[in-house]
Specification:
It is a single chain. The protein is about 30% helix and about 25% strand. By secondary structure, the protein is of the alpha/beta class. The chain has two domains: about 130 residues, Rossmann fold (3-Layer(aba) Sandwich), CATH 3.40.50; about 220 residues, Dihydrodipicolinate Reductase, domain 2, CATH 3.30.360.10. The strands form three sheets. Strands 16-15-14-13-7-12-11-8-17 form a nine-stranded mixed sheet. Strands 3-2-1-4-5-6 form a six-stranded parallel sheet, sandwiched between helices. Helix 8 crosses helix 10. The longest helix is centred in the last third of the chain and has 19 residues. The chain binds alpha-L-sorbopyranose (SOE). Alpha-L-sorbopyranose binds next to helix 8. The site of alpha-L-sorbopyranose has 5 residues, from helix 8.
Length: about 400
């Protein structure tokens, strides 16, 4: 049984969610279960979901447990029973929805990457800063910060356990585009997704590198490529004309951190056999930490202060009650999965809203990731030229 759960008199916070596909499903489950797991100071009330197709939105609302369905996100924002707007749509709509919601005094959780362009991300961070003065909070959904092993790595680094940082090595590999017959969807269109592998999955690697090191990247040199330059539109019949893929299929880049540490990144959706392989390793003067999403309940730690005779990478099973988030989950060894990161994320956001503190990752953090994305694109377009951030 969970260690604690919310109390009957816990006040409610009305949630309105825009979008109901992959991310909408994951967020819905988090809102539905967070108060069962954690003793949250606000109990989410799944007020309404918005989607353009009325019948599909109603079906999704019924399936995921939302009380109402709207076909216009503006109507969702204006509802009196919605105090927080959760944005789970493609990147081209993030800025408009988030700024409208914040200006209307609604808290916002926005999926990553924050925006499709630097200008949009700047406007969103500005809107979040204005809203914060009135107690309105904004968070960007870099959910991998909420893997207990990643949060533990952050804690160990902050405690100085790996000492002065030398290298960060982060890669995010998927293979769902390796087949040239996979159709063209929004994730392959620049005007809808902003960029390809870089923004979709590279953004997670960048956020983790900056979060774990506690340092912003100061410059990058990048290389990007598109292997399959045209594909058949989704739903088209066999003879339909192909349309161009306007985003990157793979992005590789190096970077520097203010401390003098160097970083190496790889993001691709063509790594045949790699389904959702996010790895990050940090090497410091006193030790190293390594995380692999495919073994997300584990953290590898090498402690150079131990005797060289027996030192070696140690596998920490991150399921103990004194590990981040775990006190409220299951007994030691009863492992968590990918979807629980969204529950932990919802817990943190509700806690910050109730406490009147700014959640992390903030829109300013999302903007910093966006600056890195823009710099990598700029560098790649200019022969991998070193590009300052
Ligand atoms: C698709 O590539 C995707 O769902 C990303 O958009 C997510 O952010 C990542 O967690 C998994 O892959």
């Amino acid at each position: 049984m969970p260690a604690r759960s919310s109390q009957p008199d816990t006040p409610e916070l009305g949630i309105g969610m825009v979008g109901y596909a992959f991310m909408g499903a994951a967020h819905s489950r988090a809102w539905a279960t967070v108060a069962q797991v954690f003793d949250v100071p606000l109990r989410p009330r799944m007020a309404a979901l918005a989607g353009r197709d009325g019948a599909a939105a109603r079906a999704a609302a019924h399936r995921f447990g939302w009380r109402h369905a709207e076909t216009d996100w503006r109507a969702l924002i204006n509802r009196d029973d919605v105090q927080l707007v959760d944005i789970c749509t493609p990147g081209d709509t993030h800025a408009e929805i988030a700024i409208a919601a914040l200006d209307a005094g609604k808290h916002v959780l926005c999926e990553k990457p924050l925006a499709n362009t630097l200008a949009e991300a700047e406007a969103m961070a500005g809107a979040a800063a204005r809203a914060a003065r009135n107690g309105v909070r904004a968070m960007v959904g870099f959910n991998y910060r909420r893997v207990p092993a990643v949060a533990l790595a952050r804690r160990l680094i902050a405690e100085g356990r790996i000492g002065t940082l030398r290298h960060v090595r982060a890669s995010y590999l998927q293979d769902w585009l390796a087949d040239a017959a996979v159709p063209l969807t929004w994730r392959l269109q620049r005007e809808r997704a902003g960029s390809g592998a870089l923004g979709d999955i590279g953004a997670h690697a960048i956020d983790l590198a900056q979060y774990l090191s506690g340092e912003p990247l100061t410059g990058v040199s990048g290389l990007m490529t598109t292997f399959v330059t045209e594909r058949s539109p989704a739903g088209a019949s066999g003879g339909a004309e192909k349309a161009p893929v306007t985003v990157d299929d793979a992005a590789l880049f190096t970077g520097r951190l203010p401390s003098g540490a160097v970083a190496l990144f790889e993001a691709t959706r063509f790594a045949t056999g790699r389904k959702n392989a996010l790895t990050i390793e940090l090497n410091g003067e006193l030790g190293s930490l390594a995380f692999d999403l495919e073994r997300l309940n584990e953290l590898s730690f090498y402690d150079r202060t131990e005797s060289g005779t027996t030192a070696g990478f140690r596998r920490i099973l991150v399921t103990e009650p004194d590990h981040p988030y775990l006190e409220a989950w299951w007994p030691p060894g009863h492992v968590l999965g990918w979807e629980h990161t969204f529950v932990n994320q919802a817990r943190d956001l509700l806690t910050d809203i109730a406490a009147g503190s700014d959640p992390e990752p903030s829109f300013a953090d999302g903007l910093q990731v966006q600056r890195v994305l823009a710099a990598v694109e700029h560098s790649a377009a200019h022969g991998s030229a070193w590009t300052k951030i």
